[in-house]
Amino acid sequence: MSSTVVSQAPILAKYLDLPQKGKVIAEYVWIDGTNGLRTKGRTLDKKPKSIDELPEWNFDGSSTEQAPGHDSDVYLRPVAMYDDPFRRGDNILVLAETYNSDGTPNKKNHRAAAAKLFEAHKGEEIWFGIEQEYTLFDQYGDVYGWPKGGFPGPQGPYYCGVGTGKVYARDVIEAHYRACLYAGVNVSGINAEVMPSQWEFQVGPNLGISMGDELWMARYILERVAEDFGVKVSFHPKPLQGDWNGAGCHTNVSTKSMRVEGGMAHIESAIEKLSKRHLEHIGVYGEDNEKRLTGKHETASITQFSSGVANRGCSIRIPRSVSKDGYGYFEDRRPASNIDPYLVTGIMVETVCGSIDGVDMVAEATRD
Ligand code: ADP
Ligand code: MN
Ligand code: MN
Ligand code: MN
Q1: Rounded distance between C-alpha atoms, residue 104 and residue 305, angstroms
Q2: What share of the chain is helix, strand, coil (3-state, %, to 5)?
Q3: Is 223 helix (H, G, I), strand (E, B) or coil?
Q4: What pLDDT sits at residue 9?
Q5: pLDDT value, residue 13
Q6: Residues of the chain with pLDDT under 50
Q7: In the chain, where the domains are located
Q8: 266 vs 33, 325, 336, CA distance in Å?
Q9: I need a labelling partner for 221 at 20 to 30 A (CA). Which of 85, 118, 180, 198 fits?
Q10: 3-class secondary-structure state, position 327
Q11: Residues in CB range of 75: below 8 A, 6 or more apart
C-alpha cells in the first residue's frame, strides 16, 4: 500500500523552513467527548508571555460528542502552554479546558473540579508521578512488529529489553522522549514493557493539577509522533487477551508531610483512607480495567484492596527504598492506561487530604 498515512518528511522539510514573518502558530489541544484528543491551530501576532495573553476560542462540539447540534459551540479556555516540538520556533501548544455556552464546564472537563480540590489543599503540596503504559499497533491493526498471523515468544526478554527481536519501535519512543523534553513536559523516564511493543513513560513528580496537564500533553505528543511514523497508539488497559500484560497508569503520590522524616505515618494514614474508598476509586480508574486487574500479570484483584512493601501484586505498593528511609511516597497500581488523570489525581487528593463543598469526584466522573 503506498502511503499517504505516513508524512512525506523530505517534502515537508522545504516548507517548514519558510519564515513566518513574525506570526506565531498556536495549536489548541483539548479532551473530546470520548476521552480522546482534538486540536486546531490559529495564528497569533506575537508569542504570548503568559497564559492570560492567549485568546479564548471555540469549536463545534456536535462533531466531538461534546454538545448537541442545536447548541454546538464549546469554548476553549487556555490553561497551559508548551513549546511546539513539531513546528519549533516561537510556535506553541496550548492546553485548553472546555466550557459550555452557559459557562459551566463541559462534561469531559474534569480539570475544573480537580483544580478546586488542589487549590483548597495547596498547603499540602501534593506531588504525583504517573507511569503511562501504552501499546503500539501498525496501520493494519496488528501489534507493531509482531509476526503476521502469529505471536512472538512468551514474555520474559522484553521488559527493559535491548536487541533485535526484543524491542520494537524504539525510534518512535526516542522521538517522543526528545519532543516532550523540548516542549517542557516533565518526562522523568522511559522503558520498554513486559509485552513486546508495549512501552512506558513517566511524567513527574509534578505539583497538583500540572500532573494532569503534562500527562495529557505527553499523550498528545505521542499520538502526533506516532502519526509521523504511521504507527497507532492504544491506551486500552488489556489490548490483547491471554498471557500478555495489560497496560496501566501507576500513580505515585506524596504530600509535603510524607516526604520528610516521620513521613511513613502519613503514608500509612493515607493508605488507611484509601482502603475505605476502594470501589469509589476503581469507579474513576478507567474503563475496561476489570480486564486488566485480574490478580495476574503484576496486578491485584479489582474487588479487594491490598497494600504492601515492594509487592507488585497489591493495590498500593510502598517502594522498598521508602520503607527503608521511613518517608517518601506510595504507588497506586490500580489506575488503567486510559484514565483521565484529572479524575485520578482529583479523587486522590479528595480521599487523602479531605473533601470540599461542591466537589465530588465520583459524581464528577459520570456528570453530563
Ligand atoms: P516503578 O518501579 O513502579 O516502575 P517508575 O520509576 O517507573 O517506578 O516510576 C516512579 C514514579 O514515581 C516516577 O514517575 C517519579 O516521578 C515518581 N515519584 C518519585 N518520587 C515521588 C514523590 N516523592 N512523589 C510522587 N511521585 C514520585
Ligand atoms: Mn514504571
Ligand atoms: Mn510499567
Ligand atoms: Mn509502577
Answers
A1: 35
A2: 30, 25, 45
A3: helix
A4: 81
A5: 87
A6: 1-3
A7: 9-107, 118-365
A8: 37, 14, 25
A9: 118
A10: coil
A11: 56, 57, 58, 98, 99, 100, 101
- How many Å apart are CA 262 and CA 250, to the nearest integer? 24
9-107 is a CATH 3.30.420.10 domain: no
pLDDT at 44: 98
Report the pLDDT value the prediction gives residue 2, as an integer from 0 to 100: 45
**pLDDT tens-digit map of 147-202:** 998 999 999 999 999 999 999 999 999 999 999 999 999 999 999 999 999 999 99
Residues 6+ apart with CB under 8 A from 183: 82, 83, 84, 85, 93, 217, 221
Q: What's the grid cell of residue 128?
A: 504525583
CA 95 → CA 39, 51, 74, 189, 213, distances in Å? Answer: 9, 10, 15, 22, 7
Nearest in space to 256 (alpha carbons), one of 350, 355, 121, 113: 121
- Spell out which residues have Cβ within 5 A of ligand 2, the ion: 131
User: What is the signed CA dihedral for 297, 298, 302, 304, rounded to 10 degrees?
Assistant: 130
Give the mutation target among 124, 128, 130, 131 for probing the ligand 1 site: most ligand atoms within 8 A of CB.
131
> Do 115 and 99 contact (CB within 8 A), yes or no?
no
How many helices, marked H, and strands, marked E, lie in the chain? 9, 13
Mutate to test the pocket of ligand 1, among 210, 250, 252 (most ligand atoms within 8 A of CB): 252
Q: Considering the chain, what is the average pLDDT of its residues? A: 95
The single-letter DSSP state of residue 79 is: E
Atom of ligand 1 nearest to the CA of 202: 14
Q: pTM of this prediction?
A: 0.97
From residue 252, give the alpha-carbon distance in Å to each of 15, 148, 177, 237, 365: 43, 37, 20, 18, 21
Residue labelled with grid coordinates 512525506: 8
